[in-house]
Please model this.
Amino acid sequence: MIRKIILTVLLLIALPHLALAIRIKDIASFDGVRDNQLIGYGLVVGLNGTGDSAQTKFPVQSLVNMLERMGVTVNRGDITVKNVAAVMVTADLHPFAKQGTRLDVLVSSVGDSKSIAGGTLLMTPLKGADGQVYAVAQGGVLTNSFSYGGQAASAQKNHPTAGRIPNGALVERELPNVLAGKGELRLDLSQPDFTTASRIARAVNAHFGTKVAAAGDPGSVMLTLPEAYLGRVVEFVADMERLEVRPDNPAKVVLNERTGTIVIGDNVRISTVAVSHGNLTLYIKETPKVSQPAPFSKTGETAVVPRTQLKVSEEGGGLAVVKEGANIGEVVRALNALGVTPRDLIGILQAIKAAGAMQAELSVI
Model:
C-alpha cells in the first residue's frame, strides 16, 4: 500500500514535465516538404441576377473567349448578362499530392458582383509560381450567405462574394519527391531556438543509438540516415518524428492595448520591485439654467445661465511590494494582488520593464 502511494506521488510530480513533451513532427518540418500556393482566373455562372454589371468589362471578354473556344461566334457588343461573375480561385497544393487528389479551393469575386451564392465555377486551371498548371478547379460554390434587397431596404448574411468548393480541384501535375534517394535530411524548426535544436539532436541520437543528428544552427538539425535505414527514408522519418522533446522558448510578455489582452510566457521572471498605482477621475457635468421673461411682458429677453459641476477624485494607490517570482503562477498572483484591471496591468508591466525589473521581452501589438 505504501509503495502504491509513493508511486502515485512520484507520478503526480512527473506529470507536469511529461505534459510539456511535444512530438518532433509538431514543432519541425523537413526542408522542402511544404505546401505550394496555386492561383487561377475563372468564371462563375448560374447567378440569379447578382453577377458583374456591364461596367465590368473583363467578365464579358472572358465569356466571349470561352464561347469562341467552344465554336460559338458572338459579337461582344451584343452580350449583356447578369448571371456571370469573374473570380479568382486559390488553393494549396500539398507536398505529396498525387494525380487525381482533390483539393479545397477558395473562390473570390474580383468585379462588382453582389453575390456568387448558388453559382457554378467553370473549369479553371490553377497555376503555381512557375507558371505551370498543377490542378483544375470546377464545381458549385458554397458561401453560406445571402444578400437580397430593394431600393429602400436590404438584408445580408455573412460574406456573399467569397465562397469555397470542397474537393473542388483535381491535381493534374505532381510535385517532385524531395526525400527520394537522399542520405541526409534537414529538419527545420518552426520556432528557432538553440536549446530546442540541441534537445532534438540528443533525443534522436539516444533513440537510434548512434550519431544521427547534429544541430548546425538554432533553426535546423541535420540528419544522416543510419545504415539500417538506407533506402527506407519513410520508415526513418516515421520513427524519428514521433519522438517527444520539450521545446524551450524565450521569456516574453505580449500586450494588446486595443483589447486589453495580456499573455505572459512560462519563463518570465520579475525581480523584487515596489509598485504604486492609482487612478485620477475627472467628472464634469453641464446643467445650464434658462431664464425668460413672464408671459406677455413688453420688455426682457431669454437668457441662458451656465451651470458646471466639477468633481475630481483620485483613488488611493498604496505602495505594494511585488516579490521576485519563481514561476509564472507566483508572478500572476503578485500582480493580481494589486487589484487592478487588465488595462491598468498593461501600464504596470511596461513600467516594470522600464525599471529593469522584468527579465523578459516585452512586445506590444
